[in-house]
Design goal:
Helix 1 packs across helix 5 and helix 2 (21-31) crosses helix 5 (79-93). Helix content is 62%, strand content 9%. A two-stranded antiparallel ribbon has the order 1-2. It contains five helices and two strands. A hairpin with a 2-residue loop joins strand 1 and strand 2.
Length: 94
């Protein structure tokens, strides 16, 4: 597991941009199956965060950074989004 994390960090370090805990929560919600805007909004609120209109902006920035895709009304993690979430999870355990 540690070697996989190191390799993931090396692969993504050039793409890494500032990401905060709210972005990580959005990525986590996507990984848990929330794939529509309203489902994402509800999932984020489970963590005690109310984004109101900010969720759309957050999703747009995550799409621009290559961590999330959108197909019509459905959102999904990209490979880079999954890798980033794997790194964050590994660091949280360490």
């Amino acid at each position: 597991m540690e070697r996989e994390v190191v390799e993931s960090v090396k692969k993504l370090r050039d793409k890494m941009v500032k990401i905060d805990v709210i972005d990580v929560i959005i990525l986590r919600c996507l990984s848990e199956g929330a794939d529509r805007y309203t489902a994402l909004e509800e999932c984020v609120e489970k963590y005690g965060i109310t984004l109101r209109n900010a969720l759309a902006n957050r999703l747009l920035k995550l799409r621009e950074r290559g961590y999330v895709t959108r197909d019509g009304n459905l959102y999904a993690l990209t490979d880079d989004g999954r890798e980033l979430l794997k790194i964050v999870r590994a660091l949280a355990v360490a």
